[in-house]
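step 4 of 6: structure.
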Amino acid sequence: MSTLFKSNLALFVERLCSRSVLSQEEQDAIHSLPAHASQIDAHFDFVRLGETVAYSTFVLDGLVGRFDQIGSGSRQITALHIPGDMTDLHSVVAPTATSALEALTTSTILKIPHTALRAVARKYPAVAEAFWRDEAVNSMILAQWVVNVGCRAAKSSLAHLLCEMACRYKVEADAGTFRFQFPMTQSQLGDALGLTSVHINRTLGVLGGIGTSFKGQTVCIEDWDKLCALGDFDRGYLQENIRPAQMLAR
Amino acid sequence: MSTLFKSNLALFVERLCSRSVLSQEEQDAIHSLPAHASQIDAHFDFVRLGETVAYSTFVLDGLVGRFDQIGSGSRQITALHIPGDMTDLHSVVAPTATSALEALTTSTILKIPHTALRAVARKYPAVAEAFWRDEAVNSMILAQWVVNVGCRAAKSSLAHLLCEMACRYKVEADAGTFRFQFPMTQSQLGDALGLTSVHINRTLGVLGGIGTSFKGQTVCIEDWDKLCALGDFDRGYLQENIRPAQMLAR
DNA sequence: CGGGCCGTTGACACAAATCAATGTCCGTGG
DNA sequence: CCACGGACATTGATTTGTGTCAACGGCCCG
């Protein structure tokens, strides 16, 4: 077990343990998974549509987007993955990609072979369950994404996305202000929300009016409650730190 | 093992076996799951937002929608479930509902306790994997739903939905025409696509122009290729009958 | 110095929402 | 049997949010 890998995968173990209960042995088994780190340039599609992959990808650094392309050429981002996320754990059970994965900014990823993931899931049912739960959370985020692009107005939709990302990045308030790096262009934000970059730009202007700014890839939220209200944001769907008693008693 | 239950759950086994390889023993274990059938009236929410459930739901008959409600009162349907679908297998690993489940029409459902589902998943890793795969397909459908409401125009979006449902219902062409029952109102279609019922009505008029009609809850598609082209539909994401050699060699 | 990429702004077009009225069907009760 | 009410479908007039097109400015990087 390489120390390097152990420290890399520690983030993954930590993520799983935030929602599932794993014994030391089970945690160690995940630490020991073989993993191959690689750096991906911005805008590079490291999984293409229709491609059959033999590994799942864990994000160590950067920002990864799941892209779906439609005939007319416009692109829709259906998921964003930040450090600590598995982008496609489901590829273990469905290895042919139905959407592409692209690094939105220069990113470092870890490729973990399906064979190893399947082996650990088969040996430890609790690990299989933790994987399943992790994917379930991704589905919940995706369902909220549908709501966001489906029936919220642009400013509300953008507010919701910023709230979600602040939570997922576990941003802490500094004197009432939440500030974090968010390396997306306005055009990419448009692809995520089904809007044009022009409209994103104007909508950011509106958010400025309630104390939320996005300049130079830095989000700054001065009034969290107001942003949540505008975005109709309820963090419940993120299932943060759901590992209480009911999980132990199974 | 009751014959009644066996015939009910046979649909579920069939579904799982269309994408996963299960031994006879594993199939029998699913057949033997305890299940409680119940009839749900149209418009009744049988799982409410925030509720913690102890069972997953299988649709025997009717049509079930997954609903998300936003502050302003408008509703967004994020998934449709037809007979043969599990609506919330993921509730085994995340029992607190982050969206509601409602019968769109009078429906018959089967409630299967989480304890039983978890037990069979723990005993048979291949079953756990089949469950996981089934959920992965739901995620792929959800991702397409994002694309649909996010960046397609109304007529394209509606066309895509009708194509998807025709495939999921496994509709066969009759003299080049696909015809099937689809018990949704125009208002519900609007909730699914993030459009108003008025606009759905007008858009259905447009689809009439390319030989697709929806009258009296019956969809009739005279020109499949044209509808697919309009909806930019590629059925690949539905993962129909993905159970070939690569799955056996694992 | 020059060429891209990104952000910003304005004028205009258009798709879809909204508001409102009317029509149709169907179940219910007088 | 007919009158009524409610849910759903249909249609028209108008408004509005967002897209499109276009131009310009800042900035980084080669």
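step 5 of 6: annotate
 - Chain A touches chain B through 54 residues (CB under 8 Å).
 - Residues 153-154, 195-196, 198-199, 202 of chain A lie near DNA strand D (CB under 10 Å from a C1').
step 6 of 6: archive
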